[in-house]
Amino acid sequence: MTAEDHAALSAAVGPAHVDVTTEARIRHAGGRSTPDLLRRREPDQDAPDAVVRPAHHDEVRACLDVAVARGIAVIPFGGGTSVVGALDPERGAHHAVVSLDLRRLSGLVRLDEVSGEAVLAAGTTGPEAEALLSAHGLELGHFPQSFRYATIGGFAAARSSGQNSAGNGRFDTMVTGIRVATPTGDIELGRSPGSAAGPDLIRVFLGSEGIFGVITEVRVRVHPIPRERVFESWSFPDFTSGVEGLRRVAQQGNGPTVIRLSDEAETAVSLAQVGKIGKVLAKGTSVVTVYEGEGIDERRTRVSAHLAAAGGTSSGTGPAEDWLKGRFDGPYLRDSLLDAGVFCETLETATTWTNLQTLRSAVETALKGGFSAAGAKSYVMCHVSHIYPTGASLYFTVLAGVRADPLGAWEPVKARVNDAIIAAGGTISHHHAVGRDHAPWLSQEIGETGMRILSAIKRELDPAGILNPGAVIPLERND
Amino acid sequence: MTAEDHAALSAAVGPAHVDVTTEARIRHAGGRSTPDLLRRREPDQDAPDAVVRPAHHDEVRACLDVAVARGIAVIPFGGGTSVVGALDPERGAHHAVVSLDLRRLSGLVRLDEVSGEAVLAAGTTGPEAEALLSAHGLELGHFPQSFRYATIGGFAAARSSGQNSAGNGRFDTMVTGIRVATPTGDIELGRSPGSAAGPDLIRVFLGSEGIFGVITEVRVRVHPIPRERVFESWSFPDFTSGVEGLRRVAQQGNGPTVIRLSDEAETAVSLAQVGKIGKVLAKGTSVVTVYEGEGIDERRTRVSAHLAAAGGTSSGTGPAEDWLKGRFDGPYLRDSLLDAGVFCETLETATTWTNLQTLRSAVETALKGGFSAAGAKSYVMCHVSHIYPTGASLYFTVLAGVRADPLGAWEPVKARVNDAIIAAGGTISHHHAVGRDHAPWLSQEIGETGMRILSAIKRELDPAGILNPGAVIPLERND
Hints:
2 copies of one chain form a homodimer. Chain A is α+β, with helices and mostly antiparallel strands. Chain A has 4 domains: 3-104, Uridine Diphospho-n-acetylenolpyruvylglucosamine Reductase, domain 2 (2-Layer Sandwich); 108-224, Uridine Diphospho-n-acetylenolpyruvylglucosamine Reductase, domain 3; 229-325, Alpha-Beta Plaits (2-Layer Sandwich), CATH 3.30.70; 330-423, GMP Synthetase, Chain A, domain 3, CATH 3.30.300.330. Chain A has 18 helices and 19 strands. In chain A, strands 12, 13, 14, 15, 16, 17, 18 and 19 form an 8-stranded antiparallel β-sheet that branches. The first copy, chain A, has a 5-stranded antiparallel β-sheet with strand order 5-6-10-8-9. The radius of gyration of chain A is 22 Å and the shape is globular. Chains A and B meet through strand 9, helix 9, helix 10, strand 16 and strand 19 of A and strand 9, helix 9, helix 10, strand 16 and strand 18 of B.
């Protein structure tokens, strides 16, 4: 980055908010995937040339104007929790790259309590949003595992889905409006809760991962803080019967707020960790349910009947309560595991109910086969944590004893898994998004015509290609 | 259309399916708005040069190839029920225009009973779809007023919303996959019920009204045919209290399958027609509720409590049952009214709960003021028939005694209403779509950046501009 670049960005946001310290640059050098954690252990690593911190929409606009004029790549950065390489300091064809940290765009911009809508600045984190809303007795109710750090704008940009999705929906469905600064103009969308005024352009920006513009405000649906919360755990003889239980619950509607099924491998480990449950339960699969909101007794009665009919047995409140306590902790254990020589990573997909078992087997086979080819043993766990009337997600955690070069060992395994997901009819990501890690597989999911649509929007909104080069649309595509 | 054009299209679909008879051309000369009905009374009218009837996706593909090669405009045509001028035989810059009638693309292509998904050919009508599904004990449950004629592809292309939307959602939310033939390539989307694999490109085609491609198949969520149906009607002292009742029901969730509130003017006319209700009820506003599916008693108890708390009084099952019997009849009365010298048209919008009364007043004022300026008296009725947690739709019916040139009288009134909707923060259409009638107002809803996104997709997929010229994106835009 040149002195002139620095001066121009300083003019846009104030000199105090163009940070070129090593610490800031390293902290913005990537996300939180296991490869990110491993790369951060290396002495040499890529980092953005500066971290730029605008305070509001107009300063974002000013930063983009500078970046276009001077040919600087811009990586929008919210909570920094991407696990798909969406935050890599990739400069593309440009001479410099900055991380555009949006954390100063924080706060409740507007609240309409009658309509149940809140406008939140994009850099507001999950806990900040809930604190602001709780002062009005309201809740957003979006709790992905990244909740502690991730931002409202990031949830929108990555099409996040939270642990309460069975009751509150994925983040996509919570968004009723959006404000975006693109390199060639601003846009504000969302006049009404339902519309037939052409295609829903909000959906162009949900999942755009910063390649079309920088989301600066998001309008979301909010609801009263639930007064009650009821837990119930269930055990099933196997994964198949557990899936059947979840399918019945999903297709009946108005079920629990949280529902998740852990397969045999995950059940055994989780219950062993908790250390409270005997061997009988640990042998099958387990389901956690949490009910919040209206009509809990009636919902629980109906859901229980469906789960029992599918072969489930209620196992009390304990395991569900334990799950809730530790539900955001998983990702933070990986560093300790890596220290102990254990490689640990997660990945996820989704498909129809009919295809769920086929897809699960394909991914498990690819994971185990991949590590086996690298001479490593692996332990694969799977859970279903997002259900829909027509299908569900699959979330995998893999542990492997990889002695040397875990990064090098993982890359071909991950590629093998992505190939398997595509071949088995799954989506390349249910809620982690595309980033750079999944970008090479996207064309197999949406086809060449789909890639051409994305590229056409990209060319129109960001003709200089400054925004997040190589995320979603691979750099080598020359549309 | 030249003889060569005719021969090329005949080669694509077979000579029997290129229809140049006057009757076919007149029947495909427009949609079903009141201006359409009036225009069809004139001796001179525009009509497409031919009606082309492909039988399946590959024939649609072949037709588009011919149209691109020979410079023929193509108007995709499903049930022909557009009320926004989406079917006008507009040739744009091309020497000929054909109506691409999709009714032969009919039937159930695939059914996955476990996942609750059906793939329907785009030209399948509402009643055909329900008949095909009912053989398997299943239902789609999408009942817009156009149900008798409109097609699955049309529902998708126009972002339809049906009378059961409170329970079954708008058509947007029922779609889980789509297959489209564009002039520059095919696309098939929808690998999973939820995804974060980039922006949801299905949403680019929902609401695209045939300007990006021709939808040939739609995958939809289906559910078991409800075993029970319960009706209940309510009366409220006024519109404000009725809206408050609907808001509580929408925000609580899991309410009735159908809910609609008629204002004082509509209540008086409807009840007078039915002829069964005394003066007391006819003086306020009325709400129809219908419950289908699971847990009716419990849902009805909760909903009743909310409606009563807002000032409602139950008025038995009668009016709701009467509404159901006549619910698709409204549009077919307009011709008789026109014969009697009464102009009758409908229009609709939506906004947040907070803004609903303001928007209603603005539209009513524009309608009455507009007709008054034309020296005509008018009667305006309004109902709310699609509710969301954050807002609702408003549907207006206007009757006016216009003696001469009703078409000429209506045009400035409609423009005044559209201006009023934009100024009052509503959407230019909640479920009728854009077509050519609303296209000049779309840029005020989605902004210049929004129009540029639509134009960029259009240029990419249809560089020759053969598809439905002037619909959604006004012809005069030269992006």
